[in-house]
Write the structure tokens for this entry.
Amino acid sequence: MFTPRNQRTFLRSVINGNVWLSRSELSERIDPSALTPRQITYEILESEDAVGRAQLEELKTAANNKEGDLVILLLGGRGAQALHKILGQMAKSGEADDLLGRLHVFTQDALAPMRMDNGLSFVRDFERLLGESFFQKVKSFTPMQTDTADLEGALELYLEKLDALGGIDIFFIGLGPEAGAASHLAYIKPGSGATANDLAGVIPISSSILEHHVNKFKVGGSTISDVDEAECRAATHILTLGPAAILKSRRIVQSVVDASTAPAKRESYRRLLEEEIQVDSEARSTQLDENPGLWLRLHQNVRSLILPDVLPSGN
């Protein structure tokens, strides 16, 4: 049974209404200026199904390379829907029971406050695609709690459980488009003040985020009631993992598959590939806050899977 070691081991910072949580221990602090920037070497696959199969191979490889349990972060939206459908079928057939029985599954972001059974929550979408058998067979499933009066306290407990299980083995992640070809990861938004040591945050929501969220669920095939949509549009905050959770993950698997319905992702992805990471510590911090997608460039173990239409013409 999971027991939190201490709910008050987090430092809390507030920047323009964004609340960020970090660890106080010096041993867990990250110096972003000491991290070596890397280029993203992308792989172009022919279909969303092929991306899903590649993501599945990542799970199998991690399982082969590690004894014991695996901790994975599910990706919401389109980026991993093919993987979730594949895993759902495998859970029904029983062919992957050994693998599923080793998984501790977490979500990476959530709109709040909102009922956990709202059709526009990532949890409900995961249940729709992965199916009941999947959740019965995995070792644990830990969503971010969105129906509590103490969002920060619930988020701290979530982080404590991640830590107690040994950290993240695979962080499945996407890329969200922002103005000026910037991008967000999870829901680390430009100008939110997130730093390399912030593990998670509670950030104010914007109408553009809500619109993007509702639209991508509709495009993805979710069945959404008027009541669910109204509650979703009344949400005030987003819970999200922060840069430290990304940087400390053992493996990052990125997928960008929906440029046809979110064409702004093309320029955001191009900027991710091409932007020069600043050397000066202060300039680098400013750059990462302006374009959080660039945090991926400071991780040493990233795989980026895209469809052919993600690259702008000429690449």
User: Anything to note?
Assistant: The longest strand covers residues 198-204.
